[in-house]
Amino acid sequence: MREATSRRASSGDSRSAITRAVGRTGHQPPLLVCAGLIFVTGVVFRVPAGQTTLLKHAPPESASQRSATARGQTLVVPGGVSPDGRFEVRVIETSSRSPSNYVVAIMDDRTGQTRSELSLSGGAFQYQDATKVVKALWHPSGRVVALTDAATQHSRELYLYEVTSNDVVQLKVPDYVQNALGRVGAVTVATASVTDPQAWDSDRLKCTLTFNATLPNQPGGRSRTFRAPFVLRWVHGPNSASQIVLENMGRPVPVGTLVPVALSLRRF
User: Fold this and answer.
1) Distance of alpha carbon 220 from the chain centroid
2) Contact 177/191 with Cβ under 8 angstroms?
3) How far apart are CA 196 and CA 236, in angstroms?
4) Beta carbons within 10 angstroms of residue 125's beta carbon
5) Cis peptide before 99 (omega within 30 of 0)
6) Among 23, 25, 84, 255, which residue has the fewest nearby CB atoms (within 10 Å)?
7) 12 CB neighbour count, 10 Å cutoff
């Protein structure tokens, strides 16, 4: 009985001493068990014979790791890393399917925290295909990122976000689709509209728009497919709010049949 009591006391003393060591340092110190001894930052504690000791010490998870574990898988989208490597655009799997089982977020790689979850359209595809429709194109400064997402199986929409020192702000994109439709005498898209941001040239974002439309003089009401280049410009200054303007819309040129986004994914 005295031996058992002594064993519990010794064990308690060891735990108390370890607790005091943790209290002095403010964090759990590295622990090493060897031949019945516990080494804690240079202090040795004896483990009573017959006592099972399980010690585990690992670096704490980052906020992004905890988020990914709680919500599912996470992947960096194509082009998602900012030029300076600080930010990443990621798709994160969720349990909800309304409208899709993923969200798009900008992560701060230095802190591991989510800077912002973005209000993209989604809806047409699920997480396993998300990185085939969600793509990023960063401005060389790392302050603006162009993103695409698919609201339907026949569309791909364009979004622009400005990353400030403490926030992520969505920039309004002018209605370039309506501008292109007006150039072919149409009012609405027939079934498909796909935007492809191609490159930044200083503050000018070069893109192409592929769409189909039913023309008033088209026999039998059949739609025709067109492709048009266009340029958006990021206007910004020290004393003014950032904005996106349509700098140029090229002439829509008839092309072959537009391949729906859903079918184009099969090529990957």
Assistant:
1) 44
2) no
3) 23
4) 23
5) yes
6) 23
7) 10
Owner of token pair 């969200």: 103
* Domain layout of the chain by residue ranges: 2-46, 63-267
Query: What's the CA gap between 240 and 126, in Å, rounded?
Result: 39
Q: Compute CA 229 distance to the chain's CA centroid, rounded to the nearest angstrom.
A: 27
**For residue 95, what pLDDT is reported?**
86
217's tokens: 């003089």
What letter would DSSP give residue 245?
E
Long-range contacts of 62-69 (CB under 8 A, 24+ apart): 62/111, 62/112, 62/113, 63/111, 63/112, 63/113, 63/114, 64/107, 64/112, 64/113, 64/114, 65/112, 67/92, 67/114, 68/92
* pLDDT number for residue 123: 77
The pLDDT of residue 96 is: 79
> Closest by alpha carbon to 169, among 110, 231, 116?
116
Is residue 268 scored above 60 in pLDDT? no
Q: In the prediction, which pLDDT does 37 show?
A: 40
In order of 43, 111, 135, 145, 213, the CA distances from 114 in angstroms are 39, 9, 18, 16, 40
For 176-199, what is each residue's pLDDT tens digit?
Answer: 999 999 999 999 999 999 999 999
What are the pLDDT digits (tens) for 44-100?
334 444 443 333 333 443 444 334 334 578 999 999 999 999 999 999 998 877 778
pTM: 0.69
Q: Which residues, 6 or more positions from 110, have their beta carbon under 8 angstroms from its beta carbon?
A: 86
* Residue 204, CB-side half-sphere exposure with 13 Å CA sphere: 9
